[in-house]
Amino acid sequence: MSTRFNGRIASLADAIERAPSYVSRCLTGKPEHRKRIGEALARDVEDKLGIQRLWLDSGHATQLPVDEPPVAAQAAHPEMADFSIWDDESPAADDEVLVPFLHEVELAAGSGRFAIEETEGSTLRFGKRSLRKNGVKFSDAKCVSVRGNSMLPVLRDGAIVGVDVGKNSFGDIIDGDLYAINHNGQLRIKQVYRTALGLRLRSFNRDEHPDEDYSFDEVQDQGIAIIGHVFWWGMFAK
């Protein structure tokens, strides 16, 4: 983008309501390998940043600026300054948090049992302001990947969700919100409801994945535990 943004890609992603990984693909790497910025995205970015329509079409999106940003963008985002690029080896800036990933690890070959651990060295960058705005303590932010089609059409296979592991008790459940769940070692993302007898897990794709009701005894027997509340998600356009 040609406007000069304060912070980094995470700050821009927050401003235009896109995943940092998606914005990074649009702006970094060799030009021939960058993700193309389509018509709909360009117009949406201009609207969110308060810059003139079709401004990005004049070639600004392919290079970083040396001049001042448009007045409208400057007024709408007074914190904007130089835009800097990072890669996986870059340390976190003062206004960023490196959020680790959780994944499943098989405990014994063929046992069918899994444990959930952090993926060493695999992180996603979030702006501290974004986490504060959503009431997420920096140390409680984790990421997990969605698998399967049970959460279509909202979350596709491979989508990434941000999870607040500080909200992991039954008392923290807000009926209908999304939660990451440890189901006997299996990572699952579901809508969760409290019932008189226990818990209900609901998928968005209810035609193929009907509701699952568990009594409190079944919750214990099947090793069902709330990992945390989903506060963010992102995925690449397909």
Which key terms come to mind for this protein?
Umud Fragment, subunit A, 7-stranded antiparallel sheet, alpha+beta, two-stranded antiparallel sheet, 238 residues, 9 strands, globular
Mind sketching the topology for me?
Elements: H1 9-16, H2 20-27, H3 39-49, H4 71-76, E1 96-106, E2 114-127, H5 128-133, E3 141-145, E4 160-164, E5 178-183, E6 186-194, E7 198-202, E8 212-215, H6 216-221, E9 224-234
Antiparallel strand pairs: 1-2, 3-4, 4-9, 5-6, 5-9, 6-7, 7-8
Account of the protein in words:
The protein is an alpha+beta fold and 238 residues long. The chain folds into two domains: 9-76, no CATH class; 96-234, Umud Fragment, subunit A (Ribbon). It is 19% helix and 29% strand. It has helices spanning 9-16, 20-27, 39-49, 71-76, 128-133, 216-221; strands spanning 96-106, 114-127, 141-145, 160-164, 178-183, 186-194, 198-202, 212-215, 224-234. Helix 1 packs across helix 2. It starts with 8 loop residues before the first helix and ends with a strand.
